[in-house]
Amino acid sequence: MTQSRHTMSVQEPSERIKNFQEVVGGYQENEAISEAQRCLHCKARPCTSGCPVGVNIPDFVKKVAEGDFEEAYRIVRETNALPAVCGRVCPQERQCEGRCVRNKMDEAVSIGGLERFVADYHMAHSAVPAPRSVDGRRVAVVGSGPAGLSCAGELSRLGYRVTVFEALHLAGGVLVYGIPQFRLPKEIVRRELEELRSQGVEFVLNAVIGRTETIEELFEEGYEAVFLGTGAGLPNFMHVPGENARGVFSANEYLTRINLMKAYTENAETPIFFGKRVIVVGGGNVAMDAARCARRLGSEVTVVYRRTEEELPARREEIVHAKEEGIAFRFLLGPKEVLTENDEVRGLLCAEMRLGEQDASGRRRPIPTGNLVTIEADCIIPALGTSPNPLLARTTKGLVFQQHGEIQADEDGRTALEGVFAGGDAVTGAATVILAMGAGRKAARAIHSFLKQK
Ligand code: FAD
Ligand code: SF4
Ligand code: SF4
After folding, report:
1. Residues with Cβ within 6 A of ligand 3?
2. Is 3 a domain residue?
3. Ligand nearest to the CA of 437
4. Structural domain count of the chain
5. Which residues does 209 contact at the CB level (< 8 Å), separation at least 6?
6. Which of 54, 152, 298, 352 is 20 to 30 A from residue 97's alpha carbon, by CA?
7. In this predicted model, what pLDDT tens digit does every residue of 184-234 receive, in sequence order?
8. What is the pLDDT of residues 339-375, one digit of tens each?
């Protein structure tokens, strides 16, 4: 079996930097079948053990190989509430595909590509049933990101009447306000949300729990358990002189203006700064997204990262695509000062680094060499990680929080407050879509056993 991995179609870099349309096209039916035929149906299922929600990969891939796409979709959907999303954004090379036995022969089976294919196929060939109302016991889910959605989906499947409270005017969390359209079309997220509505999940938008109403008030209204999936939306900054100058935007703000508010369109009510020369500081998915958005707005973009290319934490595909799009990378540089003129950004002064011993994260620590480097720019976007918003900590008695504001919860999401569960980025700090979904699902089961005993 020497057939090599089937690649998906990709928009040409020179074209795609002029638009926000999806970069990677999915498989056609014949390509999906052929790719699925590369699977060796390993008895030990190492791929499944690499998936945080345990998708039954060999069985769904077998159904794709047989051309039974709806059955393949049904198998994926048993454990994954958002397959069209995960197929597109999971860091597969470090998860399911990283464990695929075919890596030893040539290349992993394109598990993410096949998952995306079956989800897209299902969407294209079936209508979503109308929303139904449910009469079960009531559970409140706070936050409509992947953690909240997967918790809500699992609970409604178990017969509960679930209401999701979302602070923003659109549901989806980072899937709608963070990850750009060219990686994850918002139509896909909207459709996944419709599937949940059809299961009976209700959504209340523009509801900031902790401000609009408190967790205590939710219990008074008749909710018997609460799940907190409030994410980690508070950006970290560089903490260097000049950071407050005009032209510095957190990646969160920059991406929200672009993705949620469509600030780049002609009649948008929310403006965006079109920088000529943009520096993005950081090396994760958020940094790649900010850099690639800036490129599409016509900017010359440089990513500044304090370690080497090897340590870049972003998905491999995003790094490759960013480079193809003409984004420059400057490694082993850390921000030292934002250079300004009349309080407007003119550049970034950086300290040159070398790599020392490994730190607690297992990565080699960057150490300043003493040399300084200046890069000219009129816009700087720090993408240096995020922490949970402190609102709940301020307004909820009895919840326990960790050092950086993460909610303290056990393996199954139980917090220090009876009946209150939590999961996703709000507990772990910024992580991944599928880890947040896994946490939401686990917490749903813990809520189920809590309510059965109550
Ligand atoms: P979120 O998605 O952050 O959702 C939390 C929701 O809660 C938000 O909608 C928020 O408005 C709402 N909320 C907060 N407080 C309240 C409140 N008090 N009341 C009501 N609602 C509230 N992961 C990947 O796996 N692959 C990727 O390619 C990837 N790319 C990323 C790109 C960007 C730009 C960002 C920011 C993240 C990316 N991630 C990626 C990480 C991933 O998106 C997150 O780990 C995941 O979304 C966490 O899910 P969550 O449900 O815990 O939180
Ligand atoms: Fe792989 Fe993510 Fe799908 Fe799991 S959910 S099989 S990790 S793409
Ligand atoms: Fe198929 Fe790879 Fe999983 Fe083996 S490890 S069953 S080849 S997907």
Report:
1. 39-42, 46-47, 57-58, 61, 100-102, 109, 111
2. no
3. 1
4. 3
5. 142, 165, 167, 215, 218, 230, 392
6. 152
7. 999 999 998 998 999 899 999 999 999 999 999 999 999 999 999 999 999
8. 999 999 999 999 999 999 988 878 889 999 999 999 9
Determine which helix (DSSP H) or strand (DSSP E) holds 191, and give its type and residue range: helix 186-198
Give me the DSSP letters along 261-311.
Answer: T-TTSTT-SS-----SEEEEE--SHHHHHHHHHHHHTT-EEEEE-SS-GGG
Residue 103 lies in a domain: yes
Protein residue whose Cα sits closest to atom 2 of ligand 3: 100
436 close to ligand 1 (CB < 6 Angstrom)? yes
Residue 48 CA: nearest ligand 2 atom is 6
∠ CA 269-271-273, rounded to 5°: 170
Give me ligand 2 centre to Cα 80, in Å.
8
**Residues 27-39: what's their mean pLDDT?**
97
Q: Which domain holds residue 116?
A: 13-125
Q: What is the CATH number of the domain that holds 291?
A: 3.50.50.60
Has residue 22 got a pLDDT over 60? Answer: yes
Q: Which of 332, 361, 384 is the last residue of a domain?
A: 384
pTM of the model: 0.94
